[in-house]
Structures are given as C-alpha cells and as structure tokens.
Amino acid sequence: MERFYLKNLIKIVRSRKSNEANQEFFMTEKILETAVNLFKRYYLVKDFVNEEPHQMVLCAIYLAMKLEEMREDSIQKLA
Fold first, then answer.
1. What average pLDDT does the segment 31-57 reach?
2. What is the DSSP letter of 79?
3. pLDDT (tens digit, 9 = 90+) per residue, 9-28?
4. What percent of the chain has pLDDT over 90?
C-alpha cells in the first residue's frame, strides 16, 4: 500500500511542467526526495489505518516545496 502512494507522489511531482529544463529538473528531484522522506518518516510513527495516505501525499509535497524554497532563499542570501 505504501508503494502505491509513493508511486503517485512521484507522478505528481514529476508531472509539473518546467520552463528552465536543466535547473528545474534538479529542483524537482530535490522536492521529490524531500517529499518521499517526509512521507516515509510520517508513516514510521503512524498507521495507514488511522491516517489518510492521500492527504499525507499532498501534505508531503507541499511541505517539501516550501522547505526547498526556503533552502534556495537562504543560499542566495549567503552568496
């Protein structure tokens, strides 16, 4: 069951259209890795029975996008 939701998570993130192909690809992969890690960490503690996995997939993607956006902003401020 976890694999099904992880496959959907990967499809959602990779289906985003990008204008700048090379740089956007690496950013998408960072978001994907972060979202998968958040999803897996959450379900190390919680059960699939008690929590809705579909909502957690969307939440993991949203949080991953925000985390990577914050990292990029902080790197640009340091440069």
1. 85
2. -
3. 878 777 765 555 555 655 77
4. 3
Nearest to 63 by CA among 55, 75, 52, 51: 55
Q: State how far the alpha carbon of 59 is from the alpha carbons of 8, 22, 40, 42, 51, in Å.
A: 13, 26, 12, 11, 12
| CB 51 within 8 Å of CB 4 | no
DSSP assignment of 13-78, as one string?
HHTS--SSHHHHHHHHHHHHHHHHHHHHHHHHHS-TTTS-HHHHHHHHHHHHHHHHHHHHHHHHHH
Q: Are 48 and 21 in contact (CB under 8 A)?
A: no
Token digits of residue 32 = 């994907």
> Quick check: 59 and 41 in contact, CB under 8 A?
no
* CA 61/CA 64 separation, integer angstroms: 5
